[in-house]
Amino acid sequence: MKIVVALGGNALGKTAKEQLKLVSETAKPLVDLIEDGHEIVIVHGNGPQVGMINLAMEEANNNMPFPECGAMSQGYIGFHLQSAIQAELKSKRIMKSVATIVTQVIVSETDPAFQNPTKPIGKFYKEQEVPALEEKGYIMVEDSGRGYRRVVPSPLPVDIEEKEMIFTLINSGNVVITCGGGGIPVVRDGFSLKGVPAVIDKDNAAMLLAKMVDADYLVVLTAVEKVAINFGKENEKWLSELSVEEAKEYIEEGHFAPGSMLPKVEACIKFAESLPERKALITSLEKAKEGLNGLTGTIIK
Ligand code: ADP
Ligand code: MG
């Protein structure tokens, strides 16, 4: 099967040292999928990393715009991921090459997301730190019971500028890491592209990519093994299977947190409803293989 895998940025650690250690663990279940005969295309998140890069630049009195921070995060995460996956492939004598593509993703200038920032980035803050951050002009929200985070606009991806290159690399059997952090958000400006201050949700970018490469499966790997309704409450219920209609109902009822689980479920719905044979899976990295074998995770079809 052709699988687009979306990897959570929150699972990549907070420092280069942590990330380097974590990617070697990440590489194993991914290469297991390749060993099982699947073709995989990898998209990763960058919420914590792009926030860290932006903040570090600000501390250094170097105001680095978000698109440039996104580009840096694609290089930083892609570097670690591609070398870890390549090493894992070599250790299994699988003759494939891995490449990261600096990817620009087109968004619409009139996307309503620019008026309503929802995407959590950077580190988690305590409630008492919030007023000072709001003074700086940051928009702060509570993120799934884990603390407060800065949010930025998260427009929908419309097109992938490097798509032809992505198709070429995939079709010649290579492992491609692309649309990192959802891709660098750009708008068309005559013959050129212009970066915009936003962060595209990687789950949505992975969905668009999955459609474009005609994948069989969109697999969203995150910190939880399954999707829940009444998440974190007494009557919490973990779901193994969700039809598109059920998923839409649960969205209406507000079961999925905006900026975290909501974009994943929405991306899965859009992929699953685009063609009858297309399916999506949300599970944890460790359970990817089991999930594809129908043993765990939440399948949306
Ligand atoms: P990633 O870095 O993989 O994109 P996120 O932190 O953005 O991960 O989203 C995954 C998180 O969403 C889970 O770890 C969980 O804390 C939270 N979450 C919110 N609502 C739900 C839900 N209904 N079911 C499961 N997890 C949920
Ligand atoms: Mg996320």
Essential attributes:
301 residues; binds adenosine-5'-diphosphate; 17 strands; alpha/beta; binds magnesium ion; four-stranded mixed sheet; eight-stranded mixed sheet; 9 helices
Overall description:
This protein has 301 residues and is an alpha/beta fold. 37% of the residues lie in helices and 24% in strands. The strands form 4 sheets. It has an 8-stranded mixed beta sheet, sandwiched between helices. The radius of gyration is 18 Å and the shape is globular. The chain starts with a strand and ends with a strand. The model has no long low-confidence stretch (mean pLDDT 94). The structure holds adenosine-5'-diphosphate and magnesium ion. Residues 8-10, 45, 144, 222-224, 227-228, 231, 255-257, 260-261 line the site of adenosine-5'-diphosphate (ADP). Magnesium ion is lined by residues 8, 45, 47, 260.
Short description, anyone?
The chain has 301 residues and is α/β, with parallel strands linked by helices. It has helices at residues 16-35, 47-59, 66-91, 130-135, 163-171, 202-212, 244-252, 261-272, 288-292, and strands spanning 2-7, 39-44, 98-100, 104-106, 119-125, 139-142, 148-152, 159-160, 175-177, 184-189, 192-195, 217-222, 227-229, 237-239, 241-242, 279-284, 298-300.
